[in-house]
Design brief:
By secondary structure, the chain is an alpha/beta fold. The radius of gyration is 24 Å and the shape is globular. The structure holds NADP nicotinamide-adenine-dinucleotide phosphate. The site of NADP nicotinamide-adenine-dinucleotide phosphate has 30 residues, from helix 8 and helix 9.
Length: 495
């Protein structure tokens, strides 16, 4: 075992006092209720964070509004891009500290915090920074009739919507926060962001680094607390857009609240029940090698991770044997233990939900391996494989957002398409095959916002990401995000 020791500045930061970050400064209201941050690796309380009062939320939105109409609004696109690149440099320079904060609050392995959460946040931030100078409208020639020789021209402008409320989940709290911050700021918007109550720490440091990067005070604010804080942000009349990532039920409530508030525009990045399909021609070892990290990285707590695995009947036994052999005996350990192969679930509520799923699976006698809690005190469970009892098996229906993969055989392509689309969700899906011609014929028939071939759960800043059907509204990344963070203004001129 080689356990990473917390940096002295991480210890200092955890000792607090901690609360929110508003108008360029840490804010800890003396009267505020504090909530506890628990390390899922050992169930110990590691920090206490003051919950933002309604008055502080008002101040955060007021600061964001003032910056939008003041210093950030007056910052040129080029200077916005430079500032975001400086923030990326500072995140990179402080990445070990931020990775440790992520790992102790979310249970994410330190490798994953370093090499995915932090490294990718920097990559995404630099990508978004490049867009700052490329957000343009179009010119067009109207076809209005000319009676007396007059002429017309028209153009569109992309104008930043204003103050954005960002609401983020606990699974990749820093990276998902950075996606929202970068999208908003590169378009010229300002933002107030509410992290999950389980992971309220790392975005506070990012907000502090933003000020060091020269981003004016008030442009990026973080208000901490439970769902109420998110609700009050959505209801605020000066919030012009809500960007939410989280579960389907909360997302539906957020979408309704945003419509009720002020017809506030909203993007919803929600959950999924993502299918992966192993076609008859696969190389079993290679496919299993790809499916395992896609499914079980961060203990399966990744929105696009496969939870349904459809395997051509001719390969069912070989795939089950290979998956079982690889999953049995993985060494679980503390998120800071560099040699651990599997970490804890992110919080007690989620751990108890997954234990409930295990009891159901045990009672239904469908466990191929795993489905047990591991000795505590942290929230450790075994990675789990289940064999579905038909297409209507409940383990093929509800999102579990944990280390549970449910397998069902299929016989032909028509059945496969039916099975893959048999879900109210449509976030991601994957096909595993060497038959490219077959894959290209199947792609248009599968209902998913992202479809991977011979890979799964890879995100790239240049490739739009978001859900079809019940998995969400809107797209992040690529150029697609620009539409959501800007208003399109049309200008017509007679001359
Ligand atoms: P969640 O329970 O829906 O919470 C998400 C955020 O919403 C948290 O900050 C939460 O605060 C806040 N919230 C709760 N009630 C609210 C309300 N009434 N109004 C406004 N905000 C409210 O989701 P989670 O458990 O954190 O995250 C797991 C889910 O996120 C999974 O379903 C996963 O698939 C999804 N997810 C989707 C994507 C994607 O890109 N599509 C990415 C990652 C995760 P508290 O935590 O303080 O309650």
């Amino acid at each position: 075992m080689s356990e990473v020791q917390l940096l002295p500045r991480v210890r200092e930061f955890l000792a607090g006092p901690l609360g929110s970050f508003v108008d360029g400064q840490y804010q800890v209201e003396p009267e505020a209720q504090a909530f506890e941050v628990v390390n899922p690796s050992d169930a110990e309380v590691i920090a206490r964070v003051a919950e933002a009062s309604e008055a502080l939320i008002q101040r955060a939105v007021a600061a964001a509004h003032a910056s939008f109409h003041g210093s950030w609004g007056a910052t040129s696109p080029y200077a916005r891009g430079v500032a975001l690149n400086r923030l990326a440099d500072l995140i990179e320079a402080n990445s070990e500290e931020l990775a440790q904060l992520e790992s102790v609050s979310s249970g994410k392995s330190i490798h994953l915090s370093r090499h995915l959460e932090l490294a990718q946040s920097v990559v995404f931030l630099r990508y978004f920074a490049g867009w700052a100078t490329k957000i343009n409208g179009e010119t067009m020639t109207p076809s209005l009739p000319s009676m007396h020789g007059e002429q017309y021209t028209a153009f569109t402008r992309r104008e930043a919507v204003g103050v954005v409320a960002g609401i983020t989940p606990w699974n990749f709290s820093l990276m998902i926060g950075v996606w929202k911050i970068a999208s908003a700021l590169t378009c010229g918007c300002t933002i107030v962001i509410k992290p999950s109550e389980f992971t309220p720490l790392s975005l506070l440091r990012v907000a502090e680094l933003a000020v060091q990067a020269g981003i004016p005070a008030g442009t990026l604010n973080v208000v901490n607390g439970r769902g109420r804080v998110g609700q009050q942000l959505i209801d605020h009349p000066q919030v012009r857009k809500v960007s939410f990532t989280g579960s389907v039920p909360t997302g539906v409530a957020v979408g309704k609240a945003a419509m009720n508030a002020n017809l506030t525009r909203v993007t919803l990045e929600l959950g999924g029940k993502n299918p992966a399909a192993l076609l008859a021609d696969i190389d079993v070892e290679a496919a299993v090698e790809g499916i395992l990290p896609a499914t079980f990285t961060h203990q399966g707590q990744i929105c696009a991770a496969p939870e349904r695995l459809y395997v051509h009947r001719s390969k069912l036994q070989a795939v089950c044997d290979a998956l079982k052999a690889r999953l049995t005996g993985l060494r679980a350990g503390n998120a800071l233990d560099e040699s651990a192969q599997f970490g804890p679930l992110a919080n007690k509520t989620h751990y108890e939900k997954i234990l409930g799923c295990f009891s159901t699976a045990q009672a239904r006698q469908q466990v191929l391996c795993g489905a047990r809690a591991l000795p505590g005190p942290g929230y450790f469970v075994e990675p789990t494989l289940l064999l579905a009892q038909g297409a209507d098996d409940p383990f093929l229906k509800d999102e579990h957002f944990g280390p549970i993969l449910c397998i069902l055989p299929f016989d032909d392509d028509e059945e496969l398409v039916r099975l893959m689309n048999d879900s109210p969700f449509g976030l991601g899906a994957s096909l595993w095959t060497n038959d490219l011609s077959k894959a290209l014929r199947l792609i248009p028939r599968i209902e998913a916002g992202t479809l991977w071939v011979n890979m799964h759960t890879f995100l790239d800043p240049a490739v739009p990401f978001g859900g079809m059907k019940g998995s969400g509204v809107g797209r992040e990344f690529g150029s697609a995000f620009i539409e959501d963070y800007t208003e399109l203004k049309s200008v017509m001129i007679r001359f």
